[in-house]
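hey
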């Protein structure tokens, strides 16, 4: 904790000194120019105008893009127990899992249930899916979305499975999920 305080203090002083020597946009120029330095320390600047920053020591936030962070964070929950209606942090239903991952890995607040998540953004073609997109399924035979997962690339997705009773990775190629897949969305 002392190291964290020291790092934040040093960064704040550096930003303040740079801003004082620079024009009115000194903080923004510092942040934009030295973004790789801030990234290497895993410092996230929330508001460049006030130079407020936060620090995360989670390994899942160290990877490149927000899509990578989502997948990395979701993988940390592999094997977690499936319970209908559960929203985490160690027990989930499908939509609770997706919502928990996006909130914690990307600070994106998704609707609570899969049918609402399915209409959160416009549908995209399965040919245009990227890792981090949401994939939706009709599993009950009632004509509505009833299951959701997070696309990982290479026809794989991670989800809290009621059938598997845990968070797991499944394939969209053939079988049950290929037959029940309906569409995907880009949640960003």
């Amino acid at each position: 904790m002392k190291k964290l305080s020291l790092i934040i203090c040093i960064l704040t002083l550096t930003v303040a000194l740079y801003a004082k020597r620079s024009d009115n946009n000194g903080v923004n120029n510092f942040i934009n120019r030295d973004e790789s330095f801030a990234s290497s320390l895993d410092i996230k600047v929330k508001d460049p105008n006030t130079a407020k920053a936060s620090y995360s020591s989670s390994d899942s936030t160290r990877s490149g893009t927000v899509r990578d962070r989502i997948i990395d964070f979701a993988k940390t929950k592999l094997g977690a127990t499936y319970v209908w209606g559960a929203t985490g942090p160690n027990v989930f239903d499908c939509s609770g899992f997706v919502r928990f991952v996006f909130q914690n890995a990307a600070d994106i607040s998704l609707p609570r249930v899969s049918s609402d998540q399915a209409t959160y953004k416009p549908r995209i073609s399965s040919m245009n899916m990227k890792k981090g997109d949401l994939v939706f399924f009709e599993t009950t035979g009632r004509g509505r979305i009833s299951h959701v997962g997070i696309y990982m690339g290479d026809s794989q997705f991670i989800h809290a499975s009621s059938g598997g009773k845990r968070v797991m990775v499944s394939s969209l190629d053939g079988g049950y999920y290929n037959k029940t897949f309906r569409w995907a969305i880009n949640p960003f």
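Residues 15 and 27 are 6 Å apart (CA to CA). Residues 2-63 have pLDDT under 50 and may be disordered.
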